[in-house]
Amino acid sequence: MTKSTNKQNSGFETLDSLIQGERGIIKELLCTGLTRRRFMDMGLVNGTEVEVIMKSLSGDPVAYRVKGTQLAIRNEDAHNIIIERIENNGRIN
Amino acid sequence: MDECGCSTKSCSLHDTLKKHGIDLQNFDFSVALAGNPNTGKSTVFNALTGLRQHTGNWPGKTVSRAEGMFEFGKKKYKLIDLPGTYSLLSASQEEEIARNFLVFGRPDVTVVVVDATNLERNLNFVLQILEITGDVVICLNLMDEAKRKGIEIDDARLEQKLGVPVIATSARYKKGLGKLVQTISGIAHKEINTDPHKMNNIPQIQEAISELVPHLEQAFPGILNSRWIAMRLIDGDKTVLDSAAGSLYANSLDTGSKVVKIEEPVTE
Ligand SMILES: Nc1nc2c(ncn2[C@@H]2O[C@H](COP(=O)(O)OP(=O)(O)OP(=O)(O)O)[C@@H](O)[C@H]2O)c(=O)[nH]1
Ligand SMILES: [Mg+2]
């Protein structure tokens, strides 16, 4: 049984669950090897804030703001990124 | 005489910087412009060469490498404008063009153009470059934007930490480019000594690298950056081997075409 399946089964929230305007903090990357290195090089590292900018018409990929740059990430990949949701508290940022 | 891109007319570089456009014959040094997407690489390229490489405010405009020439202090510099890349671990075709040139093309000087408003993201790529070469100038660009956003950068400290020169510029307004060219010249002539920051490597990884390197050098005689290639292989990136083989093949083709050029005048 892989690590990712365990995490996904036990109610962790992943990046693909955020909707437009919502934000989260990256907690863990579940992918390994080159994909993991690649994500980290794009700025997707633990503790980084991510915001959903917009969804494409089909809803996949989704554009996120990460460390001052827009990145398009496929839902399949976003599903491997564990986040902690930032509640907006009704404030406008 | 062309302007050097300095804001002041009293700049001594006004007399010495000549833009040569795409006249690429007989250059003395090759200089690569690398960095994350949208940091102003093509803007620097255009300012120094007088060419009009496409620029614009969306990422990934430069999709293949462009070359141009400038002259400074009686030496000719070939400038290579590379596509933006986040990483030396290539993913897209554009990134592979940049990666292959930086790792296997061995430019005399690598200028890393970084976005001063977004330093944290940009430094990842800088550190990757410092792993493969110390002949580096950091062009800390978009300083006007940084100032506007109230971002202050201690460039002297940054230079000290990275161990290579850091030059603050606002390429769109041609600020700091004279100093940039002077520094490129200093690195090319080995008048500026650098001490590039290297990642603190774990002993076990160092051992594995040292074990791989002789095998690589045997399989690819004359290969450049074999330690870096070994690191990539340990990372699980097998594509790097194809690029290495391709670069050796391309170099042998290069030599071939030079021979043809030399023979031409003789037959005329
Ligand atoms: N304010 C400001 N804008 C700049 C500066 N340098 C470049 N720009 C602008 O930034 C945008 C991107 O510049 P480019 O030169 O195309 O960037 P690039 O690094 O070549 O981009 P890619 O080829 O996509 O990697 C353009 O709109 C430039 O006018 C600068 O110093 N200050
Ligand atoms: Mg460009």
One letter per element, helices H and strands E, the order of chain A comes to HEHEEEHE
Query: Under the CATH scheme, which class of chain B?
Result: Alpha Beta
Q: With helices defined by DSSP (H or I, 4 residues minimum), what is the helix count of chain A? A: 3
Instruction: Give the name of the CATH architecture of chain B.
Output: 3-Layer(aba) Sandwich
Overall number of strands of chain B: 7
Task: Determine the structural class of chain B based on helices, strands and strand pairing.
Answer: alpha/beta
What is the radius of gyration of chain A computed over CA atoms, rounded to a whole number of angstroms?
13 Å
**Attached small molecules:** guanosine-5'-triphosphate, magnesium ion
Q: How many angstroms separate the termini of chain A?
A: 41 Å
Integer average pLDDT of chain A: 84
The main β sheet of chain B shows up as: 7 strands, mixed
Strand order of the largest sheet of chain B: 1-3-4-2-5-6-7
Give the class-level CATH name of chain A.
Mainly Beta
CATH homologous superfamily classification of chain B? P-loop containing nucleotide triphosphate hydrolases
Low-pLDDT regions of chain A: 1-9
Written account of the structure:
The complex is a heterodimer of chains A (93) and B (268). Chain A is of the alpha+beta class. Chain A has one domain: Ferrous iron transport protein A (FeoA) (SH3 type barrels, Roll). Helices cover 22% and strands 32% of the residues of chain A. Chain A has 3 helices and 5 strands. The N terminus of chain A is likely disordered. Chain B is of the alpha/beta class. Chain B is built from 9 helices and 7 strands; from the N terminus they run ββαββαβαβααβαααα. In chain B, β3 and β4 form a beta hairpin. Chain B starts with 17 loop residues before the first strand and ends with a helix. The chains are: A alpha+beta (93), B alpha/beta (268). The interface between A and B is medium-sized, with 11 and 18 residues.
